[in-house]
Amino acid sequence: MGDSNRAALRDKVRGQATGAGGLCELAREDVLGFELEVFKSRKRSLRELVAEAGAREGVEYLVEGTRRITYREHASLVASVAAALKEKHGVEKGDRVAILAANCVAWPIAFWATVSLGGVVAALNGWWTADEIEYGLSDSDPKLLIGDRKRLARLDGTGVRVPTLEIETDFAKLEQFAPDAPLPDVALAEDDAATILYTSGTTGRPKGAVGSHRGLIGFVDGARATATLNFLVDLAEGGSKPSVGAGRPQTVSLAAAPMFHLSGLYGSIVLQLAFGGKLVIRSGRFDPGEVLALMEGERITQFTSLGSMGHRVAAHPDLLTRDLSSVTHVGFGGAPASPAIQEKMRQAFPGASQNLGIGYGSSETVAIVASFNGKDYVEHPEATGYLAVGQEVEIRDENGAVLPRGEQGRIFVRSAWSMLEYWRNPDATAKTIGPDRFLETGDIGRVEESGLMYINSRARDMILRNAENVYPVEIEYRLDSHPGVRECAVYGIEHDEWGQEVKAVVVPQEGRALSTDALATWCGETLASFKVPTAWEIRPAPLPRNPAGKVLKNVLQGAAANVLTDE
User: Fold this and answer.
1) What pairs with residue 324 in β-bridges?
2) What residue spans in the chain does CATH classification 3.40.50.980 cover?
3) What's the rounded Cα separation, in Å, for the pair 246 and 448?
4) CATH code reported for the domain at 23-42+212-455
5) How far is CA 219 from CA 422, 482, 490, 492, in A?
6) Whose CB has fewer CB within 10 Å in the chain, the N or C terminal residue?
7) Cβ(358)–Cβ(386) under 8 Å?
8) 95 — phi, psi (to 5°)?
9) Whole-angstrom Cα distance, residue 126 to residue 82?
10) Residue 66, exposed/middle/buried by CB under 10 A (0-12, 13-18, 19+)?
11) Which CATH class is domain 463-556?
């Protein structure tokens, strides 16, 4: 079937599924003062997901090492931890609980307990340095910090004073605090805040994108709608009917993405609980050999690759000796995957060769804006998917005018599920969310007539290094503070494994000699390791600038000639 015919079929199926009486019926309701599309049948809080999932008798939800937790056990643990948070630590509705930890079973349990209480989880980046952690704590102002020993040790001697629980020594006490406690019964509203996910911003400091209960439920329902539409389209084209409901094998997903990350929290913790999947947790630095062993041992069915994960797994020698036949779905997140990487993953996981997928979203959009998989991805390997149900997308030019389909411009998104705001940052919120509640993603792209979205990930200043967003200004601010640096510029350059690496061009103060090793050390004192430049250029001449004083990075990168004169 040709592209146009398949697009027409998709539109027809979509209309039927989202119309009156459809499997994904939509309604228009007031959301934050705007009439927006919502799913007519939906949960109204994250606690409802926990309660519903707790009825799955004998089905495993969380696995870490030898510890295996069923859905019913998980609901009991969540209720106990929630009771302890409230009664021992005074956590009430609206209070923030910061989590600073590597992936572990305590992470999702603490998350579900906090949001079930009506609290807000501040997900702190586990790769942050002490300086960045201090900022995150100051910004989120949590009632309690739950962290692992390694990350909490970074705060030693900093003077940070936040009530703290160490996972290794204290969390079991919370799990055992009230084993017969029911889930909390505090009233929850759909637009109550649930999460603060920190994302680097152009101000040089991370901003906290606030997700609501409605937003996270929308993430789940949007994914369910996408899967339903894909099923119906395939069925209409004569495809075989897959097993559904009780007869469908349980999805077994590897929690490879950090749980403070959108993919790890929403895409793994929340989505697997909602869909009845099993989440297999591995802590520590990503090790492709150990990951392959875990895939074989736990019979992993779903693997989502961020950054260089897929490249490293596909290149590991153990790939040839491990039984990976259980892997039937492979996804990409964090950045578009090149066709070459897609092909490597198809060869590495032949059982998933027809089920590769990709999605586009952000901490700000909360729910996925566009996604697709299977043969659509094979036929359009450079796209990022079809627009999701309930997502309004406009492509605008530099003057704010809406462009027709097929033209490239700035991507704006509006849905019932987008972030409420940037936490305690009204100025940044106003710059990102317009009075019409369309959210500027900061990305450049286009939407074709078929509804396929394409992202030009290299058209913006942000660097995508190993699926982590790195904004040059934050690094430039740090380098500017070095006494030997006169001026500097930071940008991304292509890297075979990481997608991009961070390059810094530095002009020394007159008479000063600069060592790149010393500069890297200087950056590493206050910046996470993934932000520290790995490519350097010590430049004796001043940086090229335009009349407004802006550095011409395209000139530095050799993409344009400097036709301006430094006055």
Assistant:
1) none
2) 61-188
3) 38
4) 3.40.50.12780
5) 19, 43, 34, 30
6) C
7) no
8) -70, 150
9) 23
10) exposed
11) alpha beta
To the nearest 10 degrees (0 to 180), the angle between helices 71-89 and 106-116 is 60
Helix or strand holding residue 19 (H, E) = none
Torsion of CA 133, 136, 137, 143, to 10 degrees: -130
Q: Going by C-beta distance under 8 Å and a sequence separation of 6 or more, which residues neighbour residue 358? A: 331, 332, 333, 336, 337, 371, 372, 373, 377, 384, 385
> Residue 449 CA to chain centroid, in angstroms?
27
Strand order in the sheet with 164-166: 164-166, 144-147, 96-100, 120-123, 193-199, 207-212
Strands (E), 480-544: 485-495, 499-508, 535-538
Q: Among 3.40.47.10, 3.40.50.980, 2.60.40.1500, 3.30.565.10, name the CATH number for the domain at 61-188.
A: 3.40.50.980
Q: Contact at 8 Å (CB) between 208 and 425?
A: yes
Cβ atoms of 296 and 252 within 8 Å: the answer is: no
Helix spans in 90-148 (H): 106-116, 130-140
All CATH 3.30.300.30 domain ranges of the chain, comma separated, are 463-556
Going from the first residue of the chain to its last (567 residues), give the mean pLDDT of each consecutive group of 10, the final group possibly shorter.
76 95 97 98 98 96 97 98 98 98 97 98 93 95 97 92 96 98 98 92 74 98 95 82 63 93 94 98 89 97 84 87 97 74 89 94 96 92 94 96 96 98 97 97 91 74 84 84 89 90 93 94 94 95 69 80 43
CATH 3.40.50.12780 occupies which residues in the chain?
23-42+212-455
Q: Which residue has the tokens 């004998």?
A: 58
Q: What is the 3-state secondary structure (H, E, C) of 350-408?
A: HHHCCCEEEEECCCCCCCCCEEEEHHHHHHCCCCCEEECCCCEEEEECCCCCECCCCCC
The reported pLDDT for the residue numbered 27 is 98
CA–CA distance, 98 with 96 (Å, rounded to integer): 6
547 class by beta-carbon count within 10 Å (0-12 exposed, 13-18 middle, 19+ buried)? exposed
What are the Cα distances from residue 113, in Å, to 53, 74, 105, 272?
A: 14, 10, 13, 16
As given in the structure block, the two tokens for residue 168 are: 């290794």
Helix/strand/coil for 173: helix
For residues 122 and 96, the answer to whether their CB atoms sit within 8 Å is yes
